[in-house]
């Protein structure tokens, strides 16, 4: 392997230690810990695991967190009522609705009901719009985590050719906005893209977020490219795989993220950062009156 491995676990550990110091200072200053509320609808084992990881990370960082579990057949009005309660709860700085939601719930309606100032996922139209308009407030966690990985690894973005594979609301679209904000020339590929290899071959920075194991072939990777694999796919044998053919890609790339241990921990780290940011801004507003 010639590529430098980007160790998301190590970068996350360092950032979470620094964050814990900042939340301790917040608690002394304001007489309370920052608070996060996570809503989990239904009984998906994968979602339950992600939510538990978030709760554990909060505890280690000095953030008080609660998980609110609602049944899979929860009607929209009940979920919206719960969000309204959290919106007006002064002890709650951040609200996260774990996705995906059961099919009868429209995520656009649910996510828009969260107070934008408590939207630590960065999914509210106000927060996505702010990112698009170059005035980011609370940034979507995975794309912001990718930008942190690039920065921590000394990978230049300004003026570079960046290719994002996947156009989801959670990763691909906000990822393109983050890279654009950082001055990259950005291409977004998606299911209707006609010649995916030709786009990937041009990428100096490649972000794969298609949710399709091994979609990106190693031979498509440009020599020296930074390859960021957001895919977390469970293979039939139980192993996790990214969207990129790792071994072959690592022979050509300059940098590459592993799966697991690359982008995954950064999503949670950014969530913790967003929660502290939301808490700090709320306290500032309260003191301004
Ligand atoms: N499901 C997969 N990724 C995410 C995320 O970043 N936030 C939420 N709320 N749900 C997700």
Could you tell me the number of beta strands? 11
Specify the number of helices: 10
Radius of gyration equals 19 Å
The string of secondary-structure elements, in order, is: EHEHEHEHHHEHEHEEEEHEH
Q: Summarize the main sheet.
A: 6 strands, parallel
Distance between the termini: 57 Å
Poorly predicted residue ranges: none
* Ligands bound, unique: guanine
Q: What average pLDDT do the residues reach?
A: 98
Characterize the structure shown.
The protein is of the alpha/beta class and about 290 residues long. The protein has ten helices and eleven strands. The protein has helices spanning about 10-30, 45-60, 75-85, 105-115, 125-130, 140-150, 170-180, 195-200, 245-250, 265-289; strands at about 5, 35-40, 65-70, 95, 160-165, 185-190, 205-210, 225-230, 235, 240, 255. The strands form three sheets. It has a six-stranded parallel β-sheet with strand order 1-11-8-7-5-6, sandwiched between helices. Helix 2 crosses helix 10 (about 265-289), helix 6 (about 140-150) packs across helix 7 and helix 6 packs across helix 10 (about 265-289). It is globular, with a radius of gyration of 19 Å. Guanine binds near residues 99, 141 and 267.
Provide a compact summary of the structure.
With 289 residues, the chain is α/β, with parallel strands linked by helices. Bound molecules: guanine (GUN).
Summarize the topology.
Blueprint: E1 4-5, H1 8-30, E2 35-41, H2 45-61, E3 64-70, H3 76-87, E4 94-97, H4 107-113, H5 125-132, H6 141-152, E5 161-165, H7 172-181, E6 185-189, H8 196-202, E7 205-208, E8 226-229, E9 233-234, E10 240-241, H9 246-250, E11 255-256, H10 264-288
Parallel strand pairs: 1-11, 2-3, 2-4, 5-6, 5-7, 7-8, 8-11
Antiparallel strand pairs: 9-10
Bound molecules: guanine.
The site of guanine (GUN) has 9 residues, from strand 4 and helix 6.
């Amino acid at each position: 392997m010639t590529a430098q491995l980007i160790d998301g676990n190590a970068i996350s550990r360092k950032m979470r230690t620094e964050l814990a110091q900042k939340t301790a200072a917040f608690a002394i200053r304001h007489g309370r810990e920052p608070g996060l509320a996570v809503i989990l609808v239904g009984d998906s084992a994968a979602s339950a695991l992600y939510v538990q990881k978030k709760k554990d990370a909060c505890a280690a960082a000095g953030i008080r967190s609660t998980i609110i579990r609602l049944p899979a057949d929860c009607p929209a009005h009940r979920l919206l009522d719960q969000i309204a309660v959290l919106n007006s709860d002064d002890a709650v700085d951040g609200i996260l609705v774990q996705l995906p939601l059961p099919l009868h719930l429209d995520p656009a309606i649910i996510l828009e009901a969260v107070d934008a100032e408590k939207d630590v996922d960065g999914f509210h139209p106000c927060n996505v719009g702010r990112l698009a308009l170059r005035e980011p407030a609370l940034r979507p966690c995975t794309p912001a985590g990718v930008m942190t990985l690039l920065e921590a690894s000394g990978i230049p973005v300004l003026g570079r050719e960046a290719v994002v594979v996947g156009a989801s609301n959670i990763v691909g679209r906000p990822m393109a906005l983050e890279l654009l904000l950082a001055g990259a020339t950005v291409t977004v590929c998606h299911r209707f893209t006609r010649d995916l290899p030709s786009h990937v071959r041009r990428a100096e920075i490649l972000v794969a977020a298609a949710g399709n194991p091994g979609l990106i072939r190693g031979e498509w990777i440009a020599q020296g490219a930074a390859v960021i694999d957001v895919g977390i796919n469970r293979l039939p044998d139980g192993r996790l795989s990214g969207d990129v053919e790792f071994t072959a890609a690592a022979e050509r790339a300059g940098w590459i993220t592993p799966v697991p241990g690359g982008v995954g921990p950064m999503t949670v780290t950014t969530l913790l950062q967003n929660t502290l940011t939301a808490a700090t801004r709320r306290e500032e507003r309260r003191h301004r009156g």
